Amino acid sequence: MKIKFFIAFLLFAGESNSRNLFAKCASADTTGFTVANLFQSNMVVQQNKPYAIWGKAAPGTKVTVKADWATRQGEAVADSSGVWKTSVKVPKAVPGDFKPHTLVITNGGKTVTLTNILIGEVWLASGQSNMQMALKGDKEKKDSGTENWENEVPKATFPNIRFFYTTLNFGATPYDYVKGKWVVCNPETAGSFSAVAYYFASEIHKNTKLPVGIVLSTIGASTGQAWTSRKVLESDTILYNKYLKSYDESPKSKEVIDGGFSFEKVTRPTLLYNAMIAPVAGLSIKGFIWYQGEFNRNDKNKYTRLLTAMIKGWRKDFGQGDLPFYLVQVPSYWWNNEDPAAFDYAVFREAQSNVRKLKNTEMVVTTDDPDAPRNLHPRRKKPIGLRLARIALNKNYKLANIQYLGPQLNKVKIDGSKVIVSYHSKSLDGGLTTFDKKAPREFFIAGADQVFHPAKAVIEGDKVILTSDKVAVPVAARYAFTNTAITNFQNKAGLPAEPFRTDDWADDGSGEKIKVDYKRLNEEL
């Protein structure tokens, strides 16, 4: 446990300095008229939907918002508390059109002018340290930063990609403001930004020829409940009892909350939601990408319930329907347990996969990362960002030729001493293979004694045939269902197969009995 916190601390310490590039930028004057800090020069506005914008002014006074792309201006009157909010229509973006635009916001004789604005796609990226991990490392420190950053950072000149790095903060109640600065992507700003989000944005931009904006709200060591609203947690008795009740009854809930980091504080329920999600809720966006879970690993299927509720809450807050939500399944990790058969973390990964029962969600698989089992923060972030982008490009940008699925289990059949595993045709993309041309590994089968043994795996078309000399009559199969599984099995698009188990035997000591509803997933496919 101490090792885990120390690693997370080192990562956070490195990230904290990079936040200086994304410090506060106030779009306001000194007379009380303000435009919320989220709206700045250099930003990207979401295409093809009304663009909400808000701020403060003297109660009862009129605010107008004129966009150079719109024929009709937005208008609002500040309410009794001084809050104003309006919107302007935004046209559909044209691929390859990177014309800079201007927004002029006026209140009486006071004006705020925002320039160098692009019309494109805006995504919110959130989670804990693996989403937060910066692209650039330290040349003086071995294996710091992401893989190959020395070559990647100098190439990161993308004037039509923009970043907003939300400043770390905590709140006992929801805030209406957030700090941060919109910046243009270049080697200086990209190096300090989330590697996963950078690769995601660059791949979307490359394939769509549209401007891309990323709003990043992350902090290492954080829990899912920290990013979830009080309203959501209180509305579900199970979630309330699991995540909120003990906190509300503790002295910590009575403390005055400041903005300083502590490992304990980033685990408290609602604090990050209040300060880093609530203030941006309502921003016009395309969807969410999410990489979090390590600090909820003991929650098992409670995490499915928590994240599902969090997603629903965020969607309601943003008020733009069932916005896409794409998550990253946590990579393998040993968690100070040398038992190669341990699978409690695999059960958690399974709980993550169950979130896809919710409409318009999808998941990236990471069990092919060889750096993962001994590294809580694997350096290979480029494949993660690109896999997230593949999902969006296929599902949201209608590029059907871009495969986003690794081999997905269709069904398992027992035939005497053989187990026949078949995969859904839409997930094959040219066929089943292994990246090292060796036999697929990490397959196991078990008999009625519920003892799993490594299986010999042979690819035959869209199927994998499993046998073991130690299992004469198999009754169950598992694939990559251990804490430290590192796989070589994939489709010809280079996407790894998803872990699975056909049993629900609760021999990991958790008492949990959960498994993926593959029938439902296949129906959706």
TrEMBL record:
The record's InterPro entries line, in alphabetical order, gives: SASA, SGNH_hydro_sf, SIAE
Q: Name one GO biological process term.
A: carbohydrate metabolic process
Extract the GO molecular function terms from the UniProt entry. Answer: sialate O-acetylesterase activity
Q: Which UniProt keywords apply?
A: Hydrolase
Q: Which residues form the signal peptide?
A: none
User: Start and end of every Sialate O-acetylesterase domain?
Assistant: 259-389
Q: Which SUPFAM superfamilies match?
A: SGNH hydrolase
What is this protein called in UniProt?
Sialate O-acetylesterase
